[in-house]
Amino acid sequence: MTTSAQTVLAPTRARTAAAGATVRRKQGFQHGGWFVAPFLALFVLFVIWPLLRGVYLSLTDANISGDSANFVGLDNYREALNDPLMWDALGHSAYFTLLVVPCITVLAFLLAMLAHHIEHAKWLWRLCFFAPFLLPSTVAGNLWQWLFNPGTGMVNHVFGIETPWLTDKSYAMLAVVITTLWWTVGFSFLLYLAALQGIPAHLYEAAKLDGANAWHRMVHITLPMLRNITGLVVALQILASLQVFDQAVVMMDFTPGPEESTRTFVQYTLEQGFTSYRVGYASAISIIFFVLIAAVALARMWLLRNREEGGR
User: Fold this and answer.
1) Residue 118 three-state SS
2) Of 45, 91, 251, 263, which is most buried with the most CB atoms under 10 A?
């Protein structure tokens, strides 16, 4: 009799437990929703709505004067894809990215290794490497504009050269790259330093007992353990470098640079929207740039997922 009763009551208890769990999930979602709601409201207001508004404007001939806009369909996109100035600006941004990303990745790793293994005044080294990142972009740009000045700057005097950094198209973008490396390497340095501190010490101790020298320990322990953080640094730097704007504009006194050699994609977009007053065309360029950035981010996610699956 007892067994039969338990058999009868078991499904009822299971249904009751499942119903209770469902109620608790709903209650948890309702309570959690109030905490998430402010962020969602701000996200919709400052991200989703501007994006949708930009898509709409890109299909019109809207201008900054506020006159009524006419629907032009994909005309802005066709013009943008055939605009040589837009492709030149994109090429400048891509060139800047190709220079900055590998240099900043290697430099940040070397600085982190130095700060991690140095014995004395560790806090001072870490402060010196990270402090420039705390400066506003205008301060960093103006500082290096003065350092690169052919007449009064320190760069040419220290190295005994007479390079026209900011007035020659062959050197202008290189000057922006050097400024960016000094200014932003601190962020990647901090990521690498945190990752280095997370590597278990017993791995190095075991390697020493096996006779591995410093080079072998770095190649077979440090670099593999930093693989994920290196992928993160590279991805973040690519996305940030493609959107370069502040330091280039400040250093070139808000001009496209000598022979327009430092005009980046973001700068060209702003010129079209706020100098030429073509808001619709600038919106179309922005959407194209958004698609390119999204493609880079998705490609990075796809490569990372395939690498993780391949390592299993």
Assistant:
1) coil
2) 251
